[in-house]
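A.,

Following up on our hallway conversation. Structure tokens first:
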């Protein structure tokens, strides 16, 4: 086990104390950043100077902590009261561009079926070739995952029986699409999914109208978000052992970047202890021996090797 210094223990206690109150503050910052990107920038700043468009660069770089807050809400850890937690998650989902009901169902299925059904880099050489698998793999890796989450709003008008039929048709041993559609077809989830989908379409329609001829700036920002989300998603699992839902990697980051990412790099700890809040992961990481599998940037880059054959 790694020895924990007195300074580290003090730091952990302080982090825990602050964490209980900081989440709402972070939620407010995230909402402000989303509204800055979608409304304030095109309405008040760009008319003064196109140079204000450079604000979109740091806003895109906030994608990881923004998703980390959604992730906290998915696990019911953003706010103590469940109803308030879910409302905050839905607001963040609308700003993110995908309904919270979809993100929550998909992520919880990821925890259940990780490295079992959810193993996107694996292909079976008996039924496919590397080239065929690579086409879909690289599309997903380089932005496609996020775009699928966004395009999912088109499912909102579908009746529940249609979603259930789609769940049956899409059900497969190497996909969570079947269980995902089945969960979305549940009355409570479907109602929230539809409400949030309408809000997303309305918000982004207004945003593009506000940008007008500079809409390409917003498209570029969405593209940057898509790349970050899609490239990060499976970096913690790429090439890890199959049929082990708790298998995930802890990836090394400088402490300042770890805090910026709300400790999302300690993903192995999270998979083993999904009930821990983001500010509790560092202490659990030390208790488990404090071992990193790879550096974060190394893990992200090695995915470019492409699909891996099932053995």
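Then the amino acids I'd put at each of the 311 positions:
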């Amino acid at each position: 086990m790694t020895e924990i210094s007195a300074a580290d223990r003090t730091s952990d206690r302080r982090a825990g104390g602050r964490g209980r109150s900081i989440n709402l503050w972070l939620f407010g910052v995230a909402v402000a950043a989303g509204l800055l990107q979608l409304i304030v920038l095109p309405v008040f700043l760009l008319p003064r100077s196109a140079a204000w468009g450079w604000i979109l660069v740091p806003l895109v770089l906030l994608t990881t902590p923004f998703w980390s807050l959604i992730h906290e809400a998915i696990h019911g850890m953003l706010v103590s009261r469940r109803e308030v937690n879910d409302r905050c998650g839905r607001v963040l989902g609308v700003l993110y561009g995908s309904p919270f009901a979809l993100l929550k169902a998909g992520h919880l299925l990821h925890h259940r079926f990780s490295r079992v059904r959810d193993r996107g880099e694996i292909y079976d050489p008996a039924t496919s070739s590397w080239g065929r698998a690579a086409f879909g793999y690289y599309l997903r890796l380089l932005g496609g995952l996020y775009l699928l989450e966004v395009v999912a709003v088109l499912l909102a008008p579908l009746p529940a029986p249609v979603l259930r039929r789609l769940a049956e048709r899409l059900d497969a041993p190497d996909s969570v699409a079947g269980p995902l559609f089945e969960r979305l077809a549940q009355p409570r989830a479907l109602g929230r999914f539809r409400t949030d989908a309408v809000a997303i379409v309305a918000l982004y329609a207004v945003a593009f109208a506000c940008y007008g001829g500079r809409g390409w700036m917003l498209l570029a920002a969405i593209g940057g978000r898509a790349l970050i989300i899609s490239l990060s998603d499976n970096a913690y699992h790429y090439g890890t052992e199959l049929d082990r839902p708790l298998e995930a990697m802890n990836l090394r980051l400088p402490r300042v970047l770890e805090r910026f990412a709300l400790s999302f790099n300690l993903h192995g700890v999270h998979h083993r202890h999904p009930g821990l809040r983001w500010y509790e992961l560092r202490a659990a990481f030390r208790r488990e021996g404090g071992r990193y599998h790879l550096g974060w940037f190394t893990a992200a880059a090695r995915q470019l090797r492409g699909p891996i054959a099932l053995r």
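The chain is about 65% helix and 5% strand. Curious whether your intuition agrees with the design.

B.
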